Every structure is written in structure tokens, then in C-alpha cells.
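User: Please fill in residues for this 207-position structure.
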């Protein structure tokens, strides 16, 4: 089934029984998504990046930047490049492959049969953060509609935020909780989060 944007919790989800699995709001494939102008009002304006985090979600990008907006929190996944690393493959890969084949002869036959080669065994993954600036008024709603891994958490929906074992747990009322794991070093992200929830718009949030 296709991923649809929930118009209640602003996450891309795979509906279950016509409802969002995160907040249980009705999700109708025939209902048009809000126009960019409406989304811009809902998301607000970019205030500042809080830092890089990992959010474990099924079949969706996990690593990205978390932004503070005037209306909540916005997660934008990194762009990902996955390329073969031929230099590393030919050096380290060939040596390891030769040693393994010498120790266990059937490995060479398996490699030929399966059409394996050392060049196919090593790949390099590179993550590219997507930067948003306050002056880019329509960049955030556009990225939400173009990137199913992006999501927005309205501050009005957040009931509590807690920090446990290095991670930040966000409770969204009837929605499922979010677990944000900051990238190392975590001190800068923690400081940004503490400063954010200490501001007047976040006074309703239990910490």
C-alpha cells in the first residue's frame, strides 16, 4: 500500500483500516493533501536546527536533521548516496577474499556460481544533511510533500518531553511516542532542546 500523509499528525504512514497507525485519525486516499500555502501556515517558520538525530521507523529513513519551527518540531531526513568503493575493494577485499578462498576451497566455487566478486562486497554510504534557512518560506512544506521520510510534530500536540539514557522521548497525546537519539557529540543537541522547551510557547509541555 502507498504511503499517505496523515493530516492530523503530519507524518507519512501506511494506513491500517483507513486510519493512521500513529494517531488513529482517518486517512482517506481520495482526500487531497493540503496546499503548500496551508502547510506553510501549519508548520510555521524555521527557527533553528536543533541537530542530527536518529528516529527508528519501519521502512522510512532514520537519520536526519531536527528543526525547531515557530509551531513545533520538523524532521528532514538526510539525502543518501550509496556507492561502491573500488579502491578499498581491490586492496582489502582482494586480500581477504584470497585468504578465505585458500583456507576453504569451496568458497571460490561459490563465488563463481553466484557471480560474486570483491568489488561487490564493499559499499560506502554517505549522508548529506538538507539545510533549511528561515528565509526559505516554502522550502519546509515542499520538502514535507516531496520526502515521505519527513514529518512534523505540532507543539500543541506534544504533552511531555523527557530525556532518558541519552535519548529524547516525545509523547504526543493519543499518538505513539517518538524516540529521538541525538548524534554524537550529544551535548550541543541537548542544550538546544533544553533551551527550546524553556521558552514560553513550550510551557504547556511537561518535562
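Assistant: Residues filled in for all 207 positions:
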Amino acid at each position: 500500500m502507498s504511503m499517505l500523509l496523515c493530516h492530523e499528525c503530519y507524518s507519512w504512514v501506511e494506513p491500517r483500516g483507513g486510519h493512521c497507525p500513529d494517531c488513529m485519525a482517518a486517512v482517506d486516499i481520495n482526500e487531497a493533501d493540503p496546499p503548500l500555502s496551508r502547510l506553510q501556515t501549519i508548520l510555521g517558520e524555521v527557527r533553528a536546527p536543533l541537530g542530527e538525530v536518529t528516529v527508528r521507523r519501519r521502512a522510512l529513513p532514520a537519520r536526519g536533521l531536527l528543526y525547531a519551527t515557530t509551531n513545533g518540531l520538523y524532521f528532514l531526513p538526510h539525502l543518501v548516496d550509496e556507492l561502491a568503493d573500488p579502491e578499498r575493494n581491490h586492496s582489502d577485499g582482494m586480500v581477504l577474499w584470497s585468504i578465505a578462498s585458500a583456507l576453504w576451497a569451496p568458497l571460490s566455487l561459490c563465488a563463481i556460481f553466484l557471480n560474486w566478486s570483491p568489488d561487490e562486497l564493499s559499499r560506502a554510504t554517505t549522508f548529506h544533511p538538507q539545510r533549511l534557512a528561515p528565509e526559505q518560506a516554502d522550502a519546509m512544506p515542499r520538502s514535507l510533500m516531496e520526502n515521505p521520510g519527513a514529518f512534523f510534530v505540532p507543539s500543541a500536540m506534544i504533552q511531555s518531553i523527557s530525556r532518558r539514557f541519552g535519548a529524547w522521548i516525545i509523547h504526543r497525546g493519543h499518538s505513539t511516542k517518538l524516540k529521538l537519539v541525538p548524534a554524537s557529540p550529544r551535548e550541543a543537541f541537548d542544550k538546544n532542546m533544553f533551551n527550546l522547551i524553556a521558552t514560553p510557547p513550550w510551557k504547556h509541555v511537561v518535562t
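For context: DSSP finds five helices and eleven strands in the chain.
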